[in-house]
Amino acid sequence: MAACAALVCALTPVPASAQARESVYTVSGVRIDAVADNASAARDQAFAAGHRRGFERLVRRITTPEELARLGMPNPDQSTVERMVSSFDVADERRSGTRYLGRLTLRFLPNAVQTHLRNAGFRIVDQRTTPMLIVPLVTDVTPQALEAWRQAWEQGGYETELVPLVVAPRDLVGAPDWVAASRYAQPQGAGSALYLDLRIAGDQARATAIEVGPNGLRRDRGTAQARISNDLLGSLQALADQVSDRIQSDWKARLASAATQQERVSATVEYASLAEWLRIKAGLEAAAATMIRDIRIEAVAREGALVSFSYVGDRQSLAEELRRHGVLVEETASGPVLRARRR
After folding, report:
1. Which of 245, 260, 275 is the last residue of a domain?
2. Cα–Cα distances in Å, from 48 out to 31, 101, 116, 184, 225?
3. Residue-wise over 296-328: b if at least 16 C-beta within 10 A, else e?
4. Within this chain, do residues 249 and 163 fall inside the same structural domain, yes or no?
């Protein structure tokens, strides 16, 4: 009975903390640069522009591209934008007699932002998934370009996106390899690693993205391209924005699909030990961030259990997603059977 109780407790969901949810409404890495007649006026102009830029970035984060294209970017007056911000910080502050530069981190009030967007006809999409490790690499570019490429990712504020993008240490180099990346990814809670190879030819920069992860995951994430201007960091920031936007849009599309196309299934779980059950449980919980919802234990015994859950997509996609998280699915006449993948 004690063993069965332990198995039941092992699948009890843990609610996300309020702090984690509120961090979705934190926007960092907002670059500000303003020139005015004096330093004080330049600072005020920079802060005003930064608040609006941060608001617009948050809107893009928690709405779908389709609705944003249809409804347009909301345009509240400046005082309304500032009332939606609970606090902000400035990093890398620089100033002269007529110019003010820096990077803002803005903390928005979730309820205020949600109310404003819902009144404008938007649905809110603010469910976060597991982080992704970013590995910025270069081929045949200058050391200056390499440093700017890393800086674009480190200072871009991508760690607070719905798919948080965290940057790997400098010593992770080489071809895309989950075995090498996993020791850096796991402490960050990252479920996969995205290797980004930057190449610059003339005034064009191109980044090729390959995602790798556990259980043999390898996915071509395509390429992004941007024109290089006199502002190298700004140009590479735009390139990083493209990569991030694609990843965030893919995640939001999956969330939107989950809201409209769900099917419920019962599955038998077979395991030879508590350790195997814990591995299956970890795989189900990881997949709960993407394809499956509402996991329930219907029955449990020493060597097996019956679980049910809702999922998005077809059975093949479900099997591939669970395999990615170390759970094998066998289709039988009596329904799917889940087992831990052999290590």
Report:
1. 260
2. 12, 13, 19, 38, 30
3. ebeebeeeebebebebbbeeeebbebbbbbbbb
4. yes
Using pLDDT thresholds of 50, 70 and 90, give the confidence band for residue 323: confident
List, for residues 174-214, the tens digit of each pLDDT value. 999 999 999 999 888 888 999 999 999 999 999 999 999 98
Measured between alpha carbons, how far is 331 from 35 in angstroms, rounded to an integer? 65
Number of domains making up the chain: 3
What token pair was written down for 130? 């597991």
| pLDDT tens sequence across 220-236 | 999 999 999 999 999 99
C-alpha to C-alpha distance for 86 and 82, rounded to whole angstroms? 8
- How far, in Å, CA of 252 to CA of 237, rounded? 22
Q: Is the pTM of this model over 0.85?
A: no
Residue 168 near residue 255, CB atoms below 8 Å? no
Q: Is the domain of 188 the same as that of 276?
A: no
Domain-embedded: residue 12: no
Residue 288 belongs to what domain range? 261-340
pLDDT of residue 343: 64
Residues 218 and 234 in one domain: yes
Asked which of 83, 100, 127 is the last residue of a domain, the reply is 127
